[in-house]
Design a protein that fits this description.
27 strands; single chain; alpha+beta; 30% helix; 11 helices
């Protein structure tokens, strides 16, 4: 007997909800086969079978709340062979019923409701995305039907059985966990739908068009959006998904490949100007609403102030140019500016601990760990994954960590554990050409550093005017906990360490 246990859920996640069991008691299972899906207020988790055998019992039903280490059920090991004979009589019984003239039975089969799954502990509602299938379409069990978007994650809803789809909630509607959004008729309806498709082979040319439509319809809403906005052909996209499906990453990768042959239709947009609406109203996504709400809460809560300085990047750029090839060969990653800035920030945080602290009611919590948030712009919005224990990492370790977090952010593969618990944030608007900005605090943190574009400017150096690569730095801080003197000292310390990188090596 092997227990099925609730896994660790993340740094600040204490419980999860049983969303769906994929097997019933008595079903044969294989090791690492998906058994149950868990939903937290942050992410969805999959729990797999610990061994080959038969699902012995289910101790936590769908909708139950569980904590890490809870026994969800058990698998009776080595019992799959014994379960096989039990299946054989059932098949024989089915064969007999087929031989019997009891034809009306399928018609009496009831429809199976499609309901909104539990979306997390603190998620009370979601918005319906685009239905992948249309009303009356035949669907297969576990086939993706629709995405429900919440302010934290997008939840996929699949068909509970083979049958014909009936839609009860339209795109854009607000729905709550447990609400019926559609239904799927029993397998008898799919059998009835099959003959209708039989005469189609006579019209072979028309079928090719519908086949193309079905392939694009099978895409998830997020992939459809990328395909539509970039005029991509789904047939030309290489599918690398786990089930042979096209993922969002596949579609984004295809944009660059498709951009080369596109110059021909470039002249067309000049003509149909009258057909384009002068305005277009689009509802904000849940993620965008959350970003807007959190940023406004940060402004309303903290006494935010921004102080500026400028840094001469000459020495850092020279050091990088001198060692970048050797560095990449040795460590397998490029040497960028973010590692230098992260090192400088950590050193400054050691000296000015108030910038690495936060306010909790009437208390100040000083952090003795240095988890640096790195702002990353994605297609859906700004996210801030966290580089853990940055003070223990080398330049190569920082570059590898930031690179991995950036890729996960752009692929939509970040976990909530990777986005929580930061003590200080760095945002680099310079990658988009920003010259200067006043970043907003990532609450409840007390400081955020804004990097900007490196621009060649004339500077007075020892009485002479010289052209130097200069960058403006901006530190936004919570004036309730960080005094102006501390903020300016913090920023000057970063400037000193960047203008003379050897100081960091000598711990000066």
């Amino acid at each position: 007997m092997a227990d099925i246990l609730t896994p660790a859920l993340g740094e600040s996640v204490t419980e999860a909800t049983i969303a769906k069991w994929t097997k019933k008691v008595g079903d044969p299972v294989k090791k690492d086969e998906l058994l149950v899906e868990l939903e937290t207020d942050k992410v969805s988790l999959e729990v797999v079978s610990p061994a080959d055998g038969v699902l012995g019992d289910i101790k936590a039903a769908e909708g139950d709340n569980v904590v890490p280490g809870t026994v969800l059920g058990s698998v009776t090991e080595g019992a799959s062979a014994a379960a096989a004979p039990a299946v054989a009589p059932a098949k024989a019984a089915k064969a007999e019923t087929k031989a019997a003239p009891a034809a009306p039975a399928p018609a009496a089969e009831t429809a199976i409701d499609i309901t909104v799954p539990v979306m997390g502990e603190s998620v009370a509602e979601g918005s319906m995305g685009k239905w992948v299938k249309k009303n009356g379409d035949a669907v297969k069990k576990d086939e993706l039907l629709v995405e429900i978007e919440t302010d934290k994650v997008a939840v996929e809803v699949s068909a509970p059985a083979d049958g014909v789809l009936t839609i009860a909630a339209d795109e854009g509607a607000t729905v709550t966990p447990g609400q019926k959004i559609g239904s799927v008729s029993g397998s008898g309806s799919t059998a009835a739908a099959a003959p209708a498709a039989a005469p189609a082979p006579a019209a072979a040319p028309a079928n090719t068009g519908s086949a193309q439509m079905s392939k694009s319809d099978a895409l998830s809403p997020a992939v459809q959006r990328v395909v539509a906005e970039n005029n991509l052909d789904p047939k030309a996209i290489t599918a690398k998904g786990p089930k042979g499906n096209i993922t969002k990453g596949d579609a984004i990768a295809a944009i660059g490949q498709a951009s080369a042959p596109a110059p021909a239709p470039a002249a067309a947009p000049a003509a149909p100007r009258a057909d384009q609406p002068r305005e277009e109203r689009v509802k904000m996504t849940r993620l965008r609403q959350t970003i807007a709400r959190r940023l406004k809460e940060s402004q309303n809560t903290a006494a935010q102030l921004t102080t500026f300085n400028e840094v001469d990047m000459t020495n850092v750029m020279a050091l990088r140019a001198q060692y970048k090839e050797v560095f990449e060969k040795r460590h397998g990653v490029k040497l960028g500016f973010m590692s230098f800035f992260t090192k400088a920030v950590v050193a400054a945080l050691h000296e000015i601990p108030a910038v690495n602290a936060e306010i909790d009611g009437t208390d100040i919590i000083y952090k003795n760990h240095y988890d640096i948030g790195v702002a990353v712009g994605t297609e859906k919005g700004l996210v801030v994954p966290v580089l853990r224990d940055a003070d223990t990492l080398s330049l190569a370790g920082i570059e590898k960590g930031i690179g991995a977090l950036g890729r996960a952010a752009r692929d939509g593969a970040l976990t909530m554990d990777q986005m929580q618990g930061g003590t200080f944030t760095i945002t680099n608007g310079g990658t988009y050409g920003s010259l200067m900005s006043t970043p907003i605090l990532n609450a409840p943190q007390s400081g955020i550093l804004g990097m900007h574009n490196i621009v060649q400017r004339p500077m007075a150096i020892n009485g002479e005017v010289k052209i130097r690569p200069m960058m403006y730095l901006a530190l936004s801080y919570d004036h309730r906990i960080v005094d102006g003197k501390e903020a300016v000292t913090f920023l000057v310390r970063i400037k000193e360490l960047l203008e003379d990188p050897q100081r960091a090596l000598l711990d000066l």
